[in-house]
Amino acid sequence: MPVYRGDAATGQHVVASNWHVEGVLSDGRVFIVRVAAGFAFDGCSVPRALWRLCGHPMEVPRVAAALAHDWLYAAHVCDRATADEIFREVCKLVGLGAIRRNVEYYALRVAGGSAWNSHGADDQAFARAHGALVIDGKFPKGEQ
């Protein structure tokens, strides 16, 4: 699980030590998401009215998937569909059941577009300086 510290006033959490996760996508590609200390994230973007149903945005162990996904959305080092699939695979890795991880995945596919589009050049540069994505041993979009 990632180590982070939070700010209750802003809802932002900052990664306190370098963290990574690796897994396999449905098409067999192997991925590694690395997030460096200092990256800020807000967990799963679940409306407060749905917390009782879906869980708290920083719920353990789902927070690992949220961190990877928040970094991927901020960095734009892959397409949105790949970022969403990585979220689903990390949910699987940390033990979320099939129904819950698929509901959350499809919610991302339907409603995640505005979050994806909200990250400008400054956000992308900051995120890219605080992490990396490797798929099948290569950095997508020429990142390193």
How many DSSP E strands? 6
Q: Let me know the largest β-sheet.
A: 3 strands, antiparallel
Roughly how many Å apart are the termini?
24 Å
> Strand content of the residues, in percent?
15-25%
Structural class: alpha+beta
Number of domains in the coordinates? Answer: 1
Give the number of helices.
6
Mean pLDDT: 86
Low-pLDDT windows of residues: none
- The rough form would be described as globular
What is the percent of helical residues? 40-55%
Strand order of the largest sheet: 1-2-5
Specify Rg, calculated over alpha carbons. 14 Å
Helix-strand pattern:
EEEEEHHHHHHE
Describe the fold and architecture:
- This protein has one domain.
- It has six helices and six strands, in the order βββββααααααβ.
- It has helices at 51-54, 63-75, 80-93, 98-111, 113-117, 121-129, and strands at 4-7, 12-15, 19-24, 30-35, 40-41, 131-135.
- The strands form two sheets. Strands 1-2-5 form a three-stranded antiparallel β-sheet.
- The radius of gyration is 14 Å and the shape is globular.
- The mean pLDDT is 86.
Keywords:
41% helix; alpha+beta; 144 residues; single chain
What's the gist of this structure?
With 144 residues, the protein is of the alpha+beta class. It is built from six helices and six strands; from the N terminus they run E-E-E-E-E-H-H-H-H-H-H-E.
Write the layout of secondary structure elements.
Elements: E1 4-7, E2 12-15, E3 19-24, E4 30-35, E5 40-41, H1 51-54, H2 63-75, H3 80-93, H4 98-111, H5 113-117, H6 121-129, E6 131-135
Antiparallel strand pairs: 1-2, 2-5, 3-4, 4-6
Helix pairs in contact: 2-3, 2-6, 3-4
